[in-house]
Amino acid sequence: MSTPVVWPASARYEEVESSAPGGLGFVQDLLNTASLGKPRQADLLESPESARQWLDSSFAVLHRVDPGAPAAPHGLGPDGLRRVLSLRDDLRTVLSSGPADESSETVAVPSIETTAAVTLGAGGARLSPHGDAVEAVRSYVLIQLVAASYGGTLRRLKVCANPRCRGAFYDRSKNCSRVWHDVSTCGNTQNVRAYRARRKERGPASAQ
Question: Does residue 145 sit within a domain?
Fold first, then answer.
C-alpha cells in the first residue's frame, strides 16, 4: 500500500486521502491555501513571507511526485503575490462554475492565460512550463489543468458546494457525484439550513 501524499495546505482540511494525483495535487493545494473551514484556518498567501513558506513546503512535495516541475520562485514580492492570489481566485471561480445551465444565473468566468514551451522529440510532443518565478508556476498549473482535462480527471477536482467552506477536494467516488468537502460537516450543515428555509417558507402550518 502506497504512502499518501501529504500536501501542506490541503492537509489542514484533512484532504490527504482525497488528494488529487500527481501535479494536479499542487493545483488543489494552491486552492486550499485560502482561509477555509470551521474554525477558519489562516490564509497562507496573506503575506509574501507566509506565501514563501507555503511555496517551499508545497514544492518539496511536488518535486517528489513530479521531478520535472519547475523550481519554487525565489524572492516573492508584492506583485508576485498578487499574481498568485489572482490565479487562486480565478481557479476557484472556474471550478465552481460547473456546466452551463439555462436556469442558472450568468456567472462571469475568468479566462486564465499563460505561455508554455512545446518540444517535439522521439517521445512525442511535450508541454513544459515557460517563464521565470511566478510565471513558471502559473504555466505549470495551467499545463496540469490541460492534461487533466484531456485525461478526463479535471471533473474530479471540485470546490465544496458549502459557501462557508469552498475547500478543494478530489472526488474519487465511482460516479463522481460528491459535492461536499466533508459530508458529515459541510453536507449536514447545508441540509439543515435548507430544511429550516423550507419550514420558514411554509409558515405556521408546517408546525402542525
Answer: yes
